[in-house]
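User: Assemble these into one structure.

Assistant: Restating your components, then the assembled model:
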Amino acid sequence: MTVASQVKQSLASLKSIHASFQQFALTSTDEKAQRAFHEAMLLTEEIIADVKQRLSQLEREEPQYHGK
Amino acid sequence: MPIWLEAAIRSVSILIGLFIITRILGKKQLSKLSFFEYIVGITVGDIAGTMSTDLDINLQEGITSILIWSLFPVLISYISLHNKKFRDFVEGNSTVFIKNGKVLEQNLKREKYTIDELMEQLRKKDVFRVADVEFAVLEPNGDLNVLLKREKQPLAVGDVFPNLPSEKEPQTVIMDGKILDEPLATVGLNRGWLKTELDKQGVAVENVFLAQVDSYGQLTIDLYDDKLNVQQPQEKQLLLAAMKKVQADFELFALETQAEEAKQMYEKNAKKLNDLLQKITPLLKN
């Protein structure tokens, strides 16, 4: 497995984590829990942006792995 | 009128009357019966029983005495609701037996409590060392309530995870295979959501005996068919595991990569995720 595909896998996991946090933020009934989940969701968004940037960098450096 | 008919009419009307009277007296009477209320209850029951069987008793006399016996407690509880002094007189005061960890002998004597009896009551509360008690009070109804010293109190969740969000009561959304709309609306969900969740678990509404939603919006169900195994919600555990995995991945990438900038980025985000894990774990673990 190439580095790029490993990073892609992590990115996919992060997106799933993001979705789960979003769901919990929406379905929780306690306001404090809602806020905690929402903050977690925003934090994962930041991380996702970072990873995406790194991924495009990798693909630029090693175009043969592009899209794989 | 035949005698049996008169007895029947009397009994039925007294039953209805007693039912109404007990409704007026309220729930408090049941949970916390003082000696006075105990006597009143027995007397009212006795009068009612005699009235329904003994036809020689004049109805007027019977009804008058029942009304007095049952309405007098209502009057007393009404006055004591509004007057603290009267309440103390009627219901009695609590007596402090142990204060600041010291046994108050005078108060024991006043309530005619021996130290043996006090220790027996303490043992009923699983306290075997008097020295563990910070405060103990004898309630008017005869119960002894105990506050343990801080270091002897059992560990609570809040001691381990401070600032934990409160957990709301779960709502029952399906009962006997029927969807209850009101509890669903209380947690801000609808039938469409419920259908999706049931589809995820692969069951139809008709087969569900009971379904509850907890305060995280997770659905737990019980089926009519007990041979089938239902999956308990695992989203939280999965989410926690996924977070741990990504965090570990980041640390690995940080070690593997040659680019200094990427290394820093991975390290920063691994730390972020680690902090988040610390913060969110108490929410996801229960």
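The longest strand of chain B covers residues 133-138.
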